[in-house]
User: Fold these one by one.
Assistant:
Number 1:
Amino acid sequence: MSAGPVLLVTGGSRGIGAAVCVAAAKAGWRVAVNYATNRDAADAVVGAIEAAGGSAIAVQGDVGSEADIQAMFAAVDAAFGRLDGLVNNAGIVGPTARIDEMSVERLERMFRINVTGSIRCAAEAVRRMSTRYGGKGGAIVNISSAAAVLGSPAQYVDYAASKGAIDTFTIGLAREVATEGIRVNAIRPGVIDTEIHASGGLPDRARDLAPTIPVQRPGTAEEVADAVLYLLSDKATYVTGAILNVSGGR
Ligand code: NAP
C-alpha cells in the first residue's frame, strides 16, 4: 500500500459517506470504509477506489456499539498503522412522527448512534492523532444537518436535536484539542439526495422538498463530499470549530 494519510469514514458504504470515501481516495487518502450491515455496498466503494488506483478497506462496525467501535479502530490500526482523519458521518433518522408518538427506545437508539457514537469515535481518533499522545495531528469532520437549526417539527425533532448536539460537540472538541494538532469542523448538509429519506419512510422527500430550497433542488452527496474534503485538507489549516452549511441556501 502507498504511504498516503489514512481516513476513517463512518457510514462510508452509501450516500454522503461513500462520496466522501471516493473523493478522499482521489485526493490521496487511504480510506477505511465503515459500514453497519451492507457489506456489498462497502465492498463496491472499496472496489471503485481500488479500480481508480487508490487504497481502501471495508470495516464493519455499528457506531452505536462500544465493542464495535473498539474493533473498528483496531482493524484500522492493523491495516494501516496510523490515522490522520475521521469523518463522523454514520447517522440515522426515524420515521416521521410527533414527539408524543416517539418511544424511549427510539430516542435512545437515535442518540446512541448519532451522538454517543460520534463522540466515542472522535475520542478514539484523538487518542491516535493528538500530539499529546505522540500522534502527528489530524482532522475530524462531523456531519451535522440543517435540521440542527431548523428543528424538523412534525418530522423528527429527535434527529434535529441529535444534530444540535453534534454542532455543540464540534465547537467544544475543536477548542479542547486546538493545541494538539487536531482540527475539528462540521458540515450541515441540507436536503441531499440519498437513501436516508427512504429509511425514514419518505423515499420522495428530497424531490418533494425541492421547491422549499432556495436553489430549487436537492444537493448531491458529491457536493457535500467536496466540502468535507476541503475541511480535511491543508487548504483549511486555520479552520477549526467551524460549521459549514452545504444546503443550497436552506
Ligand atoms: P444513508 O444514505 O442512509 O447512508 C447511511 C450510511 O451510514 C450507510 O453507509 C450505513 O451503513 C451507515 N450507517 C447507518 N447506521 C450506522 C451505524 N449504526 N453504524 C455505522 N454505520 C451506520 O445516509 P446519508 O444521507 O448519506 O447520511 C449521512 C449523514 O449525513 C448522516 O449523519 C445524516 O444524518 C447526514 N445528513 C444527511 C442529509 C440528507 O438529506 N441525506 C441531510 C443532512 C444530514 P449500511 O450501508 O451498512 O447500512
Note: Strands lie at 6-9, 30-35, 56-60, 85-88, 138-143, 182-189, 243-246.
Number 2:
Amino acid sequence: MTFPAMKNDLILRAARGEETERAPVWVMRQAGRYLPEFLAVRAKHGFFEICRTPDLAMEVTLQPIRRYSGLVDAAIIFSDILVVPQAMGMEVQMNPGPHFPDPLVTPADVEKLTKNVDVDKELGYVYAAITRTRTALAGEVPLIGFCGAPWTLFSYMIEGGGSKTFQKCKSWLFKHPIESKALLNRIADICIDFLVGQIKAGAQLVQVFDSWAGELTPHHFAEFSLPSLQRIATGVRSKLAAQGIPAVPMTLFAKGANTSLAAIARTAGYDVVGIDWCVDPADARAAVGDKVALQGNLDPNVLYGGREAIEREVKRMCEKFRDGKAPKAWIANLGHGITPGVDPEDLRCFFECMQKYSKA
Ligand code: 1CP
C-alpha cells in the first residue's frame, strides 16, 4: 500500500528516541465526547455503528485534526478497546458505558469464547477505517492504531463493564491463577494479530492501553499484566519481520503503574512509555533510563482550571520533561483521556501553550 508523503513526522521521530525541535502533542480520547461535531454524529448513529462504518470512523478521527489543524501532531483511529472481546465472541453494549450482558463468571465460561478467532475477518472494519483515514490525512499527521492490554480487557470481560473495586476479576487472579494467565495470553494473541493488521492497513504507531494497570499491586502487575504486554511487543515485531513489513514504534500506557516504570522500560519491549500525572516527569525519566521515549502527563482536570492554570501547568510540564541532562525524547499528552465536559477552546489553549513552551 502506498500513502501520501508525510508533512509532519515529529511524533515518529520522538517515538524512536530522537530529541525533536518541539515536543509533538496529541491527546488521548481526542476524537470524542467533548467535541460538539462528534456529538452531532453520535446523535444519529450508535457507538459501535460508528466504529464499524469506515466513513464514520474516519470522519470522527479527522474532526480534531481539522479543528486543531497545525496544533496537533497525530490522529488516533476512532474505535474502542472493547472490539477485541467482541471479536472473541462476547456481546458488548454501550449504554452509555460499556456493558457485557453475559460476562465470564467462572473459568468454565471461557469455553463460550470463539475458538480460533479470525481476527482479520472480525476486525477488518478497523483496518478499512485506518486505510481510508490515512489516505484522507494526506500526510498532515501520522495515524495511531491501538488496542487494550490483556489485563484491562480481562477486567471488562469478567466484571461485565467498568468497575470501582475489581473484585470479580481480582478474585480470578487469586483463585484461578493458571486459568487467568491462559486467558490473558489468549487475549494477547488476538491483540498481536489485531495490531499487525492495523499496521499493515496503515497505522504508523500503535499504543496499548492498560488503563487498569494501577489497580494491581506491583507484584501482581509483574505476574499477570507484564508478561502479556511483553508477549504483544515481541509477537507484533516477530510477525511483522516474518512478513517483511517494517516495524512501527509501539507505546505502552500502563496507567497508575508508576512504581513499575523501571520494570516496564527494562522488560516490556515498547519504544514509548506513557505516564499519568501522579508521577513527576523527572522521576519517570530516572526510572525508565534513556532507552525509551516518554509520553504524558498533564492532569486532564487542568483543562477545567481556566486558561491561566492551563498555561502555568503546561509551562511547568515542559520544564520538567526538558530539564537537565536526561534524554529528552518526549511526546506531550494528558496523563489520561480527555473528559466529556471540557470546552474545546480550552483544549486549543493547551495546544497553543505547547507550541509556546515546548521548543527544545
Ligand atoms: O457513547 C459514546 O459516544 C461512548 C463514548 C466513548 C468514546 C468516544 C467510548 C465508550 N469509547 C470512545 C472512543 C475511544 N475509546 C477511543 C477513540 C479514539 C480517541 O479519540 O482516543 C479510544 C482510544 C478508546 C479507548 C478506551 N475505551 C479505553 C482506554 C483508554 C482510557 O481512557 O483508559 C477504555 C478503558 C475504554 C472503555 C470505554 N469505552 C467507552 C467508555 C466510556 C469506556 C470507559 C468506561 C469505564 O470507565 O470503564
Note: Residues 130 and 201 are 6 Å apart (CA to CA).
